[in-house]
Design goal:
mainly alpha
């Protein structure tokens, strides 16, 4: 009986993997198709990649997407980390209140957040464009950074910063040389989540951007209703970049750990 359950669980897991990854493989495969067909592979070609790089609208969408994601990640990581550290030293009532408010953007449907931000910018008579989209991305990325950093801060010894101050550190040194190194992994995880959330956001970007400014998701949405193989090439490149980043993030620490172990054994 247990053996049958084990077989069924493996089949179920395999079907889930196929469901998730087959569309990605399909897109990457047909990005090399020599024709516009999305059902019949007529031959290997890189012309859709060449067409993508020659398309000014796609290049602008990539530029705005990457620029917005990088700036939003940097700002939200700094603000979210400092806020989480400050809250960890505050009273429990204030900490719980701010935590509940911080969870609202994540619990709310994106459409509600998007409409709220749009109305906010409109009420202040701020012209929508890249800056409004960037501010919106920073606003919804900060909670994810705080959500990543806060649990790690709770695991630290509450007297750690006091001990650093007693030993002669300034408050800035205590934070940068004692606290932050202890939560570095959580900060990196929060930054990665913020980058991914900003990079692939569509709903909030759609409501807060202006004429002439669109990211990849908006561009894909506006062109997906007609056959456009360059979108396959664009999607494939995103898959390549994400795969390379994931390999680097996972392999580099592993190689560093092996190197340290080897140095310890040699010593």
């Amino acid at each position: 009986m247990k053996q049958k359950k084990g077989i069924f669980s493996k089949i179920y897991f395999a079907l889930i993997m196929v469901f998730f990854y087959l569309p990605i493989i399909y897109v990457v495969f047909f990005s090399f198709n020599s024709s516009k067909s999305l059902t019949k592979f007529t031959g290997f070609s890189l012309k859709w990649y060449e067409a993508m790089f020659a398309n000014r609208s796609i290049m602008e969408a990539i530029y705005y997407t990457v620029l917005c994601a990088v700036i939003a990640t940097i700002v939200s990581t700094i603000v979210g980390t400092i806020t989480a550290i400050g809250l960890s030293k505050n009273r429990r009532v204030i900490r719980e209140l701010v935590t509940q408010v911080n969870n609202l953007p994540m619990l709310n449907p994106e459409i509600v957040t998007a409409i709220g931000l749009m109305l906010f910018f409109t009420s202040l008579r701020i012209k929508t464009g890249f800056m409004t989209m960037l501010l919106a991305h920073i606003a919804f990325c900060i909670p994810y950074v705080m959500l990543s950093v806060t649990p790690r801060l709770r695991q630290l010894d509450p007297n750690l910063s006091d001990a650093a101050l007693d030993l002669g550190c300034t408050p800035w040194q205590a934070m940068t040389k004692v606290i932050i190194p202890q939560i570095k992994g959580s900060i990196v995880a929060g930054a990665l989540v913020a980058f991914s959330m900003s990079f692939d956001d569509f709903v909030i970007s759609m409501f807060t951007t202006g004429p002439g400014v669109s990211n990849i998701s908006i561009y894909v949405y506006s062109n997906v209703k007609r056959v456009n193989p360059t979108i396959n090439a664009l999607s494939a490149i995103i898959v390549y970049v994400i795969t390379i980043v994931l390999i680097i993030v996972n392999v580099v620490p592993m190689l560093r750990e092996r190197k340290l172990k080897k140095e310890v054994l040699d010593a």
